[in-house]
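Contributing new complexes? Match this layout with zinc ion.
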Amino acid sequence: MKDTDLKTQLVQDRRYLHAHPEEGWCEFETTYYIIERLKKLGLKVLSGLEIIEPQEVMGRNETIVKAAEERAISHGVPVNFLKKLNGYTGAVAVLETGKPGPVTAIRVDIDCLPIEETTEPNHEANLGNYHSEYSGFSHACGHDGHTAVGLGVAAWLAAHKDELNGTIKILFQPAEEGVRGAAAMAAKGIVDDVDWFVGAHIGCSAHLGEVGVSHQGYLATTKFDLEYEGIQAAAGSPEKGRSALMCAAATCMTLGSLPGHSQGISRVQIGKLISGTGRNIIAPHAYLQLEVRGETTEINDYMAKNVEMAVRGLADAYGVKYKLTRMGEAVTYKGDEEAINLVKAAASETEGVIKVYDTNSKVGSEDCTVLIRRVQQHGGKAAFFYYGCNHPGHHRADFCIQDEQSLPVGLGVYVNFIKRVNGV
Ligand SMILES: [Zn+2]
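Output block (do not edit by hand):
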């Protein structure tokens, strides 16, 4: 495939994916699209239980997943294909060159966000006529671009396999939003043999034509769902009831005033609380979504422990039962100098790049860190970079990425990195 064809393909793939956004653990049409392509390219493909450790899956709702499978079937995804996935989305492409050399892995995430895309006529997707076809959902973080770039790397690998040695893997990871998917892939051991690992995100601090290479950062985070179960009773007989709602309210106040940590940034946030059935009924149920973050994994663990302690105590105090479930988790990131320098060199020789800069990822969270930590624990080296676009801010209805210019840069950095470490 010629380079110009590759660029056209990148944009086409991205726009198809943009019009068909699927949320975490529901990416069945996306996975089908990816795997069909990888097979056509002649790459080895792993999927389902080959790449996901079910016990480590976080934040996956069986009812929502089932509905997504049904929709996929109604859109032409074969039932047999879905059977092989065993309910788990994502894929890994593997190129085994048969020649001795390092194992290199890149990772792209494939899920969207529950955000309704803007109908503003000047929005890129509206101008280009590839607006999200699924109401309430859109690729408002650019993972459609990431996936397209992953497919671009796959096409490049297939076309240049004779010029490569070792093994190259492309991880198409589900459920990055809410930091839910990486742990299940890491636990499966698919990066345990990896010598070089690179992850990336479009946008963030990088403008169009810029590549930011990250040295360290990201906040470690734990996402929780919390349920309280009390006893329903009439308001006139309060001694007969146990209010889950009052316990939930007390939880908000208590967690909101948790002490911080002297060694760095810490955060606690309760983003959702649903409770109550009516004015004169003691509420039997409460449901909360909350999260903690920390500048280091230790600080995050400290915050998570505080939450567990407070919830246990409050449930006791209010005489209600509780269920605290970990829905997602990410750690902090520290890149390896050698891998960072290789990414910088790869970026410098990429067409369309006007600036390469060093950066740290101060805020936010990203579960690629979980895969990176796994690689490093097994002796591999890893780095993370940003390839730029001009955007109004991530997770917004009008998020945009200028795919024609931005995606070839992402592809170029990955490809140049692979050439450097796996070139013959
Ligand atoms: Zn993202």
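Reviewers usually confirm one structural detail per submission. For this one: Residues 297-318 form the longest helix (22 residues).
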